[in-house]
Design a protein that fits this description.
This protein has six helices and twelve strands. A seven-stranded mixed β-sheet has the order 4-3-2-5-6-12-11, with helices on both faces. It has a five-stranded antiparallel β-sheet with strand order 1-10-9-8-7, with no helix packed on it. The chain is an alpha/beta fold and about 230 residues long. The chain is globular and about 50 Å long. A hairpin with a 2-residue loop joins strand 9 and strand 10. It is about 20% helix and about 35% strand.
């Protein structure tokens, strides 16, 4: 288990506190459509942090080629139809480049700055010339106005219960997922980033924002910086 991360509930729990059975139940949401609208038809996608394939499978159905990477073998057992690679994302070096590198699930908000730097270097290392990196960010109020909850149309409730400061700009976030037959919790470390801080983190990896894909700024399309 990664320091500061833990999870409870039925089934296997990954090193960052995610419950495999929980994520196998979650719907894909609007993310696959956001990705599909921002990249070329049939693009080769490197999906970093694929989990059980919640986005992988809809992207495959849309005709994309996906290489799915996750540090949890239990998560990857659920992925069908994609090439899978198990290992830490921040150390990944496939010696290949892709049309699209996808970094979703708020991974860019890793509490450990060195982990975040490693994640973004992995993105930069694997994006092809003329390609792009799609990054999902937390919303502006993700760590505030708590607790809050949302009832999903499919019948479960997700709550962000608390976000408590633990020092150095990092919060310990606790989330709960309540289904009719089971409850899961996840506690993880997250670092809020302003737009300026986010773009500064990208610049460290020689990436820059090309445009924001959603009105709330939670999805960004980044491209490699031109050589000096």
């Amino acid at each position: 288990m990664r320091e500061g991360h833990r999870g409870t509930g039925p089934g296997a729990i990954t090193p960052d506190g995610c419950a495999v059975e929980l994520y196998a139940r979650l719907p894909p949401g609007p993310e696959p459509e956001i990705v599909a609208a921002a990249v070329p038809t049939g693009a080769r996608i490197l999906e970093l942090g694929s989990g059980v394939g919640r986005m992988t499978h809809p992207l495959l159905e849309r005709g994309f080629s996906v290489t799915a990477v996750d540090e949890s073998a239990e998560m990857l057992e659920h992925v069908r139809g994609a090439r899978t690679i198990c290992g830490p994302i921040e150390r990944l070096d496939l010696g290949e480049r892709f049309d699209v590198v996808l970094l979703a699930s708020f991974l860019v908000h890793a509490g450990d700055v060195e982990v975040r730097r490693g994640l973004l270097r992995t993105c930069a290392r694997h994006v092809a010339d003329g390609g792009c990196v799609l990054i999902q960010r937390e919303g502006a109020d993700y760590h505030t106005n708590l607790p809050r909850e949302r009832v999903d149309p499919s019948g479960f409730t997700v709550r962000i219960v608390s976000a408590d400061p633990v020092g150095d700009g990092v919060n310990s976030v606790r989330a709960e997922y309540e289904f009719p037959d089971a409850v899961w919790t996840q506690t993880f470390l997250a670092r809020p980033l302003t737009e300026e801080q986010f773009e500064g983190a990208l610049a460290e990896a020689e990436l820059r924002v090309d445009r924001y894909l959603t009105d709330d700024g939670t999805w960004a399309r980044a491209v490699p910086m031109p050589p000096p």
